[in-house]
Amino acid sequence: MGTVISNKKVADGIGLLVIESSRGGNPGQFYMLRAWDNYPLLSRPISIFDNDENTISFLYQVVGEGTRRFQELRAGDKLHMEGPFGNGFPGVEGSLALVGGGIGIAPLFYMAKAVPNADVYLGFSQQPYLTDAFLEVSRSLHVEVGGTILSSIDFTEYDKVMVCGPHGMLKAASDKHKEHGRPHHVFVSLENRMACGVGACLVCSVKCRDGRKKACTDGPVFPVEEVVFND
User: How far apart are the C-alpha atoms of 208 and 206, rounded to whole Å?
Assistant: First the structure.
């Protein structure tokens, strides 16, 4: 159980929720959150946006009943928290590019803080948000609105590239990697639907080169060459 410190609107349909908690977690991991008792039935998987000794922050997009309940939370309200779950982003030696599309920027801020020399690339379909925060913690920031942020990046310039965003963006990263990448060079964080967070329900099954895997326990971060992206 966590206590809400603040719940701030950062763009249309986008909120930043700060919770008093010392449970922690690593960049790329997530929590299962719920702000209700019985309905909706399932908790919602939300990536860690930021973390320190006493707080955890979550960036969320209002897309249904569960996330609408998050939007209604106020300072002092209680929130059910389970986690942290998932394997998160790998360690980095050398240069790093962090690439996010839309709400896919959520797990990248914490990683940018952990690797201060990272170059950050953020793509938005409409209104950009939290760009000032990313600029403070990264070596450089590149923002694209209404275009394709991946076209701004030369994968060969980096020792590691980490990408999170919608399916089409991740598939494009996979295609780009096939041309210019090498094993364990590009990693993708998947935004699959989840029900339990612990690998029991199989809702988050991922098609991989060597069979089905679970986004919640085997991921959500995978080397891009392991994942099969269907058109």
Answer: 6
